[in-house]
UniProtKB/TrEMBL annotation:
Top-rank taxon: Bacteria
All residue ranges annotated as the VOC domain in the record: 11-128, 170-284
Protein name, as recorded: VOC family protein
CDD domains: VOC_BsCatE_like_C (cd16359)
Length: 284
């Protein structure tokens, strides 16, 4: 069981994306990534790995514009595979279908592939290294950006071909463009209850609960003058964070004490971080 994405931790569970063409996106998420369709309507599709929990929700509203550049918003959402063997299988699959990757890295705590969907929404697909191998130096975990040893990964391939996302696949983390690291830190740590686990100078911050290497990444790589995307732009509509019940109410109280607007819905709350990234807060 993945204890980092379960109570008492706070973790990302789902992302809602705005896409320009539902059928084009659906073909990518089904055929290239291997998600299952849970629900589908004219303008919306719910995608799952296990046939039960939605990980990616696609919306295709009318009048949507192409992805705007140099904005805050989604850098990538990260799909966590259960094993290194699964990573080997999807590498073989990407080679077979000739889908272009945008990068591949060994982060010491994990091994990752990077790509984008047809609208340019960033995606990471990764497998964690055993937590016993993570190098903690004080309160921070070492995360590098090294060349991925594909040959080593392929040595663990079990001989079976990729047949879709394994049922144990989950949303591993969300990485966001923001425009002020300190404001983001105040919101996510003092407000929502995350802890800092890694600084990348003054350019990026990685935060988590329960000593995971990160549940959320935050960076200012699009610039400190970046503004939120237009409402009719391709990209992330919102992402969902899951809280234990007692921690959610406490977080809402802290945010309200910080004069941050929190909107109560039927069984959740909606809030925006200082960079305009929308978050749905739910109870596990």
């Amino acid at each position: 069981m993945n204890t980092f994405h379960a109570e008492p931790n706070i973790y990302a569970q789902k992302i809602d994306l705005k896409v320009t063409d539902l059928q084009t996106s659906l073909k990518f998420y089904q055929d290239i990534l291997g998600f299952q369709v849970l629900h589908q309507s004219k303008h919306e599709v719910s995608l799952s790995a296990d046939g039960n929990q939605t990980l990616v929700q696609l919306h295709a509203p009318e009048g949507l514009q192409k992805k705007e550049l140099r904005r805050t918003g989604l850098y990538h959402f990260a799909i966590l595979l259960p094993t290194r063997n699964d990573l080997a299988k999807i590498i073989r699959h990407f080679i077979k279908v000739n889908y272009p990757l945008q990068g591949a890295s060994d982060h010491d705590v994990s091994e990752a592939l990077y790509l984008a969907d047809p609208d340019g929404n960033g995606i990471e697909i990764y497998a964690d290294r055993p937590k016993t191998s993570w190098d903690w130096r004080g309160e921070e975990v070492v995360m590098g950006t090294n060349a991925l040893d594909v040959q080593s990964i392929m040595s663990e391939w079990d001989g079976n071909e990729w047949s879709g996302m394994p049922k144990e696949t989950i949303m591993g983390h969300i990485h966001l463009h923001v425009n002020n690291i300190e404001e983001a830190k105040t919101f996510y740590c003092d407000g929502l209850g995350f802890e800092v686990v890694t600084h990348y100078g003054n350019q990026a911050l990685f935060i988590s609960t329960g000593k995971y290497h990160h549940h959320i990444g935050l960076n200012i790589w699009n610039g400190t003058m970046a503004v939120a995307p237009s409402a009719n732009s391709v990209g992330m509509a919102f992402y969902t964070l899951v809280f234990p019940k007692n921690k959610l109410e406490q977080a809402v109280e802290r945010l309200q004490a910080m004069n941050i607007e929190v909107v109560k819905q039927a069984d959740s709350y909606m809030v925006s971080d200082p960079a305009g990234n929308n978050i749905k807060l739910v109870v596990e």
